[in-house]
Design brief:
The structure holds two protein chains of two kinds.
Chain A (H helix, E strand, L loop, with lengths): L7 H12 L7 H18 L5 E6 L2 E7 L2 H20 L6 H19 L3 H20 L4 H32 L13 H14 L6 H6 L5 H23 L4 H19 L3 H22 L2 H32 L15 H14 L6 H15 L3 H27 L14 H19 L2 H4 L13 H21 L9 E2 L4 H4 L2 H34 L3 H4 L14 H22 L1
Antiparallel strand pairs in A: 1-2
Helix pairs in contact in A: 1-2, 1-4, 2-3, 3-4, 3-9, 3-12, 3-16, 4-5, 4-9, 5-6, 5-9, 6-7, 7-9, 9-11, 9-12, 10-11, 10-15, 11-12, 11-14, 11-15, 12-13, 12-14, 12-16, 13-15, 13-16, 14-15, 14-16, 15-18
Chain B lengths: L2 H19 L16 H25 E2 L6
The chains are: A mainly alpha, B mainly alpha.
């Protein structure tokens, strides 16, 4: 029983339940205790530890550890801790509880050894994270949260259907590598995971909801949902070639939108899609180097992507908007936030000495040496776009461009700086000491990031991209626009969809109902008194209790006929 | 960006070119390694292409009024 409560996912979800009982002043501090306990548990469990249980006749593996799950478990628990520090000033109970339960769901998925345990945590994640959108309580977020929830319920449903089919077909519910066969069960499971991994065209929930969620909510969301899906893809779908092309397409698609969008949080949200694209692509390649690259990139991505989200959220907290149109010239007033953001920006763009360099190179090389040179070039284009959009455009138009920012600024709480500082330190640490990360990776490999070739490659790309940006930057100047995406099909076409699937169906059922009632009325009226049509000779008022003489005669003959027939037949 | 910044970037670029033609002279793992300064050209061309094509798509197809969905 003690062991059950020492499962990372259960610790955090129990913690979420306990938070409700804690007075408001102690809550943010207690929030941090649970991720710390989780980290302690992760370090204390030996690799290969497993905890089993039974549900009906299924043998469940409630917790199972190996190198891969420990890598993700560590960065998730650490991420929850740092995001908790960042949100220390935030006192809203609902958000705190849901953020912790959400982290618990994600960690539960990481350590789940069987698919039924996995799907339970999967759904907890979906529901808990929805509140981080709804908590803003505006009509806009009400809609976005509902669309997010529907999308994830659909994804969870597909995954669950796939799991059931898979368990019936193979008799196994273990979370294990699935051979690349396009059976309905496998495809259903993959579609369910693809929703959470934001694989295009199933990505719109992300770009729709993340920029609208609460300030601290987005930080948590940027850490867990997509990376959990990446983890499941590594576990179950490694080497599925289909993923290579979808991953490369995602990398490009996200970049285009990151270049087009003008809202800081929108840019970073689309950029998540691009970054997850690298990982999905590497998972499709499926070699040892590629899988290590996907895991390392997911790990690093949590560090620098949440750092960048934290920095823009600090600007948003301070200036009250995330639209770059209203910003600019902040470098004198928020120099530290700029510095911290730039660490994230340099990391994500894969500049040497920062974390992204040591993992992105693995993914790109894995594609190149795995026989996919075109894909490698596509990923390099995405690298150009990363540096252009989140490395240059976003900070330039937020902190520079204008001589000074003229609006009011709220001061940024210290806890935000602490959280960002921890992540910035981690980004630089892993950039300088890549072996600290490589030692944790699941597959054996021999990879050296700091070769002359790699440094020349990325330096040339970054320099020339910078030159073009500086030359063309007016073209990227912020404006106030809404940028359409595939969610247009269910947001703008919603009236048409409603007409076809709701109103037409309603009208049809109403017609049928009318028909039934009309016929019932018709029969009731006519069979109430059959005399009216059995005896056309009398008037309408002909009542059943008083037959006309002629009718009595007819009925008597009929009865007599029956009698005669009976007598003849039976005797 | 002051002149000194451009000068520093220029020096770094010259160093990478020097490295490419000395240390990496015999390096050949992809077909494009035969093209001199490939990654510089790649970065330049792709960045221009990205900006122009993104701008084109945005203008023709994607950009709408800020209150479009309200």
């Amino acid at each position: 029983m003690i062991e059950f409560f020492a499962i990372p996912g259960v610790i955090l979800i129990t913690g979420a339940a306990l938070l409700v009982l804690i007075p408001e002043r102690l809550r943010p501090a207690l929030f941090l205790v649970f991720p710390v306990i989780t980290l302690a548990v992760i370090f204390s469990r030996p690799e290969g530890y497993s905890l089993t249980g039974t549900l009906l006749h299924y043998d469940l593996v409630l917790m199972q550890t190996d190198t891969l799950s420990n890598l993700f478990g560590f960065v998730f628990a650490g991420g929850a801790l740092v995001a908790g520090i960042y949100a220390y000033h935030m006192r809203e109970l609902g958000q705190q509880v849901c953020a912790l339960a959400y982290a618990g769901g994600a960690l539960g998925v990481i350590y789940a050894g069987d698919l039924l345990t996995l799907i339970i945590y999967w759904e907890i994640m979906a529901v808990a994270s929805t509140w981080l959108i709804w908590a803003k309580r505006t009509p806009e977020t009400d809609g976005a949260g509902m669309r997010y929830l529907i999308y994830h319920v659909l994804g969870g449903g597909l995954l669950f259907a796939g799991i059931l089919w898979h368990s019936v077909a193979t008799g196994s519910i273990a979370v294990e590598s699935i051979p690349a066969e396009y059976t309905p069960a496998n495809l259903l499971m993959m579609l369910g995971v693809a929703v959470n991994a934001a694989i295009i065209p199933l990505h719109t929930w992300l770009s729709d909801a993340y920029p609208k969620a609460t300030m601290t909510g987005t930080i948590f969301m940027s850490i867990f949902t997509t990376k959990t899906a990446v983890y499941v893809l590594i576990r179950m779908f490694a080497g599925w070639e289909l993923l290579i092309f979808f991953g490369a397409a995602m990398a490009l698609y996200g970049i285009y939108y990151a270049v087009i969008c003008k809202d800081m949080r929108e840019i970073l949200s689309y950029h998540i899609i691009s970054q997850v694209g690298y990982m999905v692509c590497a998972i499709g390649v499926g070699t040892d180097l590629a899988l290590n690259g996907a895991a390392a990139h997911a790990y690093n991505n949590i560090l620098y992507k949440s750092l960048m989200f934290m920095a823009v959220t600090a600007v948003m907290y301070s200036a009250g908007t995330s639209k770059m149109f209203h910003l600019g010239g902040l470098y004198k007033k928020m120099p530290w936030v700029l510095g911290l953001y730039v660490v994230g920006g340099l990391s994500i763009s894969g500049i040497p000495l920062f974390a992204g360099f040591v993992s992105k190179g693995m993914v790109i090389d894995a594609a190149g040496y795995g026989g996919y040179e075109t894909i490698m070039l596509v990923l390099l284009v995405a690298s150009v776009g990363t540096w252009l959009s989140v490395g240059l455009k976003l900070p330039y138009f937020t902190w520079f461009d204008k001589p000074d920012y003229e609006g009011e600024l709220k001061s940024v709480p210290v806890n935000m700086y602490i959280a960002m500082g921890i992540l910035a330190f981690a980004c630089i640490f892993y950039g300088i000491f890549p072996n600290a990360l490589y030692a944790w990776l699941p597959q054996a490999m021999d990879y050296e990031p700091y070769t002359v070739y790699h440094i020349v490659e990325i330096t040339q790309i970054a320099l020339l991209t910078f030159v073009v940006f500086w030359w063309m930057k007016k073209k990227l100047a912020p404006e106030l626009t809404t940028v359409l995406d595939l969610d247009w099909f269910y947001r703008k076409v919603a009236p048409a969809t409603r007409l076809v699937f709701v109103q037409n169906v309603n009208t049809f059922f109403a017609k049928v109902e009318d028909g039934i009632q009309n016929s019932a009325r018709f029969f009731a009226r006519n069979f109430q008194n059959p005399m009216r049509w059995l005896n056309p000779l009398t008037d309408d008022k002909n009542e059943a209790k008083s037959y006309s003489p002629s009718m009595e005669v007819v009925m008597s003959f009929i009865l007599l006929g029956f009698l005669v027939f009976a007598v003849v037949y039976f005797f | 960006m002051k002149t000194i910044h451009w000068l520093i970037l220029g020096i770094i670029f010259v160093i990478t070119l020097a490295l490419e033609f000395t240390v990496l002279a015999g390096y050949d793992s992809h077909w494009w390694n035969a093209i001199p300064a490939f990654y510089a050209i790649f970065g330049f061309v792709m960045c221009l292409a990205l900006i122009y094509s993104a701008k084109f798509i945005a203008k023709k197809l994607l950009n709408r009024d800020i209150n479009y969905y309200d």
